[in-house]
Write a structure and sequence with these properties.
- By secondary structure, the protein is of the alpha/beta class.
- The protein folds into two domains: 184 residues, Rossmann fold, CATH 3.40.50; 152 residues, Rossmann fold (3-Layer(aba) Sandwich), CATH 3.40.50.10490.
- The protein is 47% helix and 14% strand.
- It starts with a helix and ends in a 26-residue tail after the last helix.
Length: 382
């Protein structure tokens, strides 16, 4: 497909995906100001809850929304000094008794773009049923959704944070909704010092724009038509790697063979996935200790006789690998938001892979097997 054809697609009436990807750095600032404006209400709700003895915190959502919990879990646990666990709604719905502990006070933080998926609503209902003391903090992009409506008629145990309407992606694949909900929960954890967070937000806006400036590189990689793609991340970036994996899978309608894993786990069998036509995407950690393990694997793969191609994201300029491209920036070990712009790499690779495969990124599922709001899920209450 020639460049003019891409331009024609991007200017079409249904060209939401590209617009939603490009809007993110601006939206991150908008989300920051929204939470800053509501900081008193958020703090008034959360402070007494977080002071409860033996409090347990669960992060939940389905698919992309579930990966928000995977990415945020470690940071929230460090900041709140309480047990924090990411559990998908898809697990809560089928085995609530294995997730909830009746006598333990629980804060359920739910992430939902539309708030209308059956699992999102049922997970909240089950939490009320299975816990003697339950608190809900809902982060959603849709103030009219079923999950948000819990807040309208709710008691004092529910707080609903509705993000700006532009975060409610119209395309099938979640892009700005993912990064904005992830940013929101990280900001909520710092709500009592929200003014101090703005320089960090400015920094990730710069990093996001730096990745957007690399679109030609990412488009060229998509045009190379690798047989397989691997996203590797550690800690918080493992959740980002999972989301990048899903974006590439969704936007290519399953035609791209793709996987994700942590750097260390990849050595234990999954490395067999790599062949001579594989792109390995390294999502390097901001933690220098973790990156020592990551560099070891990256250097090992670069010595592979098959000349495996790689893309380095983050990690500064100090690592030189053969047969590799680099999107680098200065490591900021104290900026817990730095994982957020990394997500744009998977989104753009997915977008350009779809375009060059003749797939409409806004509605990539030719069979209709996946949809914007999941369909066909029956909820069984007994």
């Amino acid at each position: 497909m020639q460049k003019n054809e891409i331009t024609e697609l991007e200017s079409g009436a249904e060209a939401h995906t590209q617009r939603e990807i490009l809007s993110q750095p601006e939206l991150w600032q908008e989300v920051y100001h929204l939470i800053k404006k509501q900081n008193a209400e958020i703090s008034n709700f959360l402070t007494p809850v977080l002071q409860k003895e033996n409090l347990r915190i669960l992060l939940t959502g389905a698919g992309t929304s579930g990966y928000i919990g995977d990415a945020a879990q470690g940071t929230l646990q460090k900041l709140w000094r309480r047990p924090v666990q990411a559990v998908p709604t898809t697990e809560i719905v089928i085995q609530p008794d294995s997730i909830f502990l009746r006598a333990v006070p629980t804060l359920l933080i739910s992430f939902a773009r539309s708030g209308n998926s059956p699992e999102s609503v049922e997970a909240a209902r089950l939490a009320n049923h299975c816990c003697d003391e339950i608190y809900h903090f809902i982060i959603t992009c849709n103030g009219e959704g079923a999950l948000a409506n819990m807040h309208a008629a709710a008691s004092e145990n529910v707080f609903c944070l509705v993000l700006p309407e532009r975060t409610n992606d119209k395309s099938l694949a979640m892009t700005s909704s993912f990064t904005c909900m992830l940013l929101s929960v990280l900001l909520v954890a710092r709500v009592d010092s929200i003014e101090e967070e703005f320089p960090k937000i400015q920094r990730i806006v710069e990093q996001g724009n730096a990745i957007l400036d690399k679109q030609i590189l990412l488009e060229n990689l998509a045009m190379t038509c690798f047989e397989r793609v691997v996203f590797l991340g550690s800690g918080e970036n493992l959740g980002i790697a999972k989301e990048c994996h899903l974006k590439l899978l969704e936007l290519t309608d399953g035609k791209q063979v793709v996987m994700s894993d942590s750097f260390l786990a990849f050595r234990h069998g999954p490395r067999a996935f790599v062949n001579a036509s594989t792109l390995v995407v390294y999502l390097f950690s901001r933690n220098p200790h973790i990156m020592r393990y990551e560099r070891d694997l990256a250097e090992d793969i670069s010595r592979d006789a098959r000349s495996i191609y790689s893309l380095q994201v983050g990690g500064g300029d100090g690592l030189v690998l053969s047969n590799s491209s680099n999107i680098a920036w200065s490591i900021d070990t104290e900026n817990q938001y730095q994982m957020i712009p990394v997500t744009l790499v998977g989104q753009l690779l997915g977008y350009y892979s779809a375009v060059h495969s003749g797939i409409n990124p806004d509605s990539p599922s030719s069979s209709g097997s996946i949809s914007r709001v999941v369909q066909g899920v029956n909820i069984y209450t007994e």
